[in-house]
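User: I'm putting together a small comparison set for a docking exercise, and I want a reference complex before I start. The sequence is below, and the ligand is ribose-5-phosphate. Could you produce the 3D structure with the ligand included, as C-alpha cells?
Assistant: Of course. I'll restate your input first, then give the C-alpha cells for the complex.
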Amino acid sequence: MALAYDPHFIGSENAETTSPSPLVLTQDELKKIAAYKAVEFVKSGMVVGLGTGSTSKHAVDRIGELLRQGILTDIVGIPTSKRTHEQALSLDIPLSDLETHPVLDLAIDGADEVDPDMNLVKGRGGSLLREKMIECVSKKFVVIVDESKLVDYIGGSGLAMPVEIVPFCWKFTAHMLQSLFQEADCVAKLRTLSENGEPYVTDNSNYIIDLYFKKDIGDLKSAGDAILRLPGVVEHGLFLGMATTLIVAGKLGVTVKNKS
Ligand SMILES: O=C[C@H](O)[C@H](O)[C@H](O)COP(=O)(O)O
C-alpha cells in the first residue's frame, strides 16, 4: 500500500531525514516530495521557470495551489513547454516569456540523469531546448528527482541522451552523431511515436535523436561542444554546471544539495 503524501515528511536543507513510516513510497510520491520541497524556494514576486515532466508537474500544481490559497502572490511563470504552458494556464498561474523576462529568479525542473557533480541529462520528455533556454538564465536552478535518476557517470543509466535536430536530412545528422561517439559504441535512434511510428515532433517543430552509449563518453564539455558543431543539431540534453540545487527524494528521506 502506498503512503499518503505528508508534507511534514521533508526535513531541513543539507540534512538527510528519515520517513516516519516504514511503508514504501511509490516513485510518483517521491517525485511529489522533491517537487514540494523545491517550491519552498519560491517566494512571492518571483519570476519562476516552470519545468516539464512528471516530477515538475507536481511543482507546477503546488505553485498553483499556493497562489490559489493566497500564500504566494505576484508570481510570473515561464513555461518550458507547451504542455506546461497548458497546465499552468489551467491553474491560473500568470505567465510570461523570456522576451519580457530575460532573467528568472528561479527555475524548477526534473532530470533524467544526475551525476555526482550535478551535471544532468534532460529531454527524454522531449522539451530540452526550451528548458535549456529558460534554465540557463535562471539565477537559481533547482533540480528535482527521485533517487532512481542518480548515476555514477552521465550515460550510466544506459538510457537515451536526447539531441534535438532539424528534420531536414535527419538520417544524415543521426549518422554524424553516431560517428562522433564511435568509441563509446554509440547507437543513434530517431525518436518515434509508439502509436504510429511517426517521428516525434518537438514544440519547436524539430526531431529528436536519442543517443545510447555502451561506454563512458569521456569529457562532457567536449562531447557537448562536438555535438553542437554539427550543423543539423539544434541543442543537446547535456545540462552541464547549470543546476544550483539538487533535491533528491529517496526511500530514506530527502536530500538538498547546493552547488559548491
Ligand atoms: O523533456 C523532459 C524533461 O527534460 C524532463 O524534465 C525530464 O525528462 C524528467 O522527466 P520526469 O520528471 O518525467 O522523469
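The helical segments are 27-39, 54-68, 82-90, 128-135, 170-180, 220-229. The radius of gyration is 18 Å.
User: Thanks, that's exactly what I needed.
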